[in-house]
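Q: Hi! New to this. If I give you a protein sequence and the SMILES for pyridoxal-5'-phosphate, can you show me the bound structure?
A: Yes, paste them in.
Q: Okay, here:
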Amino acid sequence: MAPFATSLDVRADFPLFDRGLAYLDSAATSQKPREVIEAMDSYYRCSNANVHRGVYKLAQEATDLFEGARERVARFAGSEAATTIFTRNATEAINLVAYAWGREHVGEGDEVLITQMEHHSNIVPWQMLCSERGARLRYLHVSDEGLLSLEELDEVLAEGRVKLVSVVHVSNVLGTVNPVAEIAARARAAGAVSVIDGSQAMPQMAVDVAEIGADFYAWTGHKALGPTGIGVLHGRRELLESMRPFLGGGDMIASVGFDSSTYNELPWKFEAGTSAIAEGVGLGAAIDYLDRIGMDTVRAHERDLTHYTLERLGEIDGLRTFGPGDLDVRGGVVSFEVDGIHPHDLAELCDREGVCIRAGHHCAQPLMRELGVPATARASFHVYNNHEDVDRLAEALKGAREVFGL
Ligand SMILES: Cc1ncc(COP(=O)(O)O)c(C=O)c1O
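A: Thanks. Here is the predicted structure of the protein with pyridoxal-5'-phosphate bound:
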């Protein structure tokens, strides 16, 4: 697919842009369209009640809004409502798997396999699991072009000790789109369970969880135009049914005795306590919005912006970008460094021009170590960005070089 400019022009749907900013930090969190804000506002104004419990009409209405959102989110992701669990964010979704599946199935001498390009939320839960259970955490390498090697995956799996493989779908630093269906299939053939961190993928491309075939797929609402406080875990039904709950409390039970309890059906078995109801409703609205644009259009738009950004940043002396050059395996994230200027200084000088970019380790310290840098600057996109934002970034970076006398 060649990069091409799309006619997507939806900035007016996002109230924040009244501030005139060039917001280029959607990999950290996306801006929210008016209809997400309004859906949450309307829920609190007109339909607020606790869900699953009340017999009165208002409670039923709140439940319908919340569960209706779950159904649409499930359909959007190619999954089903019963196996679509609402969590607080992707981090909690991955921890759910590490606790509820990992602590039952990973033991002394076993291995958990992740990659060097993971976000901390797909590293630390496995470090904690492995140190508690006497297991070993291993990492697949990232090549100079920012890619994983399926041959290395095969070699590690062939040793026969890997119980679980967890891989990011789209890297938040390199933008790499990993071949997750291949990885899940190979893990499965080797008798390992697979987890995919789809935090950066679900917001920007069509994702069909069933087609990918992983055992678990985690993502987070706030990067997909939805609110903070809501994430999603899609799981394979047999596994979810056989797992014990993650957290105990109200809503996740069928009955409670003095000594023991029985647990609710899926998905509520994994949703202890009062849910993030307004956030669920907001995520439903975000998904409706994305669905209307069409995820192929979203992907084409991000691809065009990535291409244009690589082109414009290529004009700047002393600037180096990270990640694959092939746009077929690259999402809407461009990490870079400029010789002689610390990324934090770059971000601050950009901010003076109303250009919001990220600087730091992007919650991927092991990857930074592997890339041989303490930090990078990063521009990332969503549907509301356009070429003018990228032009503003390029001008701000040129100005930053002048400030430093470069
Ligand atoms: C690839 C990736 N995984 C996981 C996360 C964690 O998301 P959250 O903080 O919403 O749990 C992020 C957020 O930056 C991310 O980019």
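A: The pocket of pyridoxal-5'-phosphate is lined by residues 27, 89-91, 119, 121-122, 168, 172, 197, 199-200, 220, 231, 363 (CB under 6 Å). Let me know if you'd like me to explain how to read the tokens.
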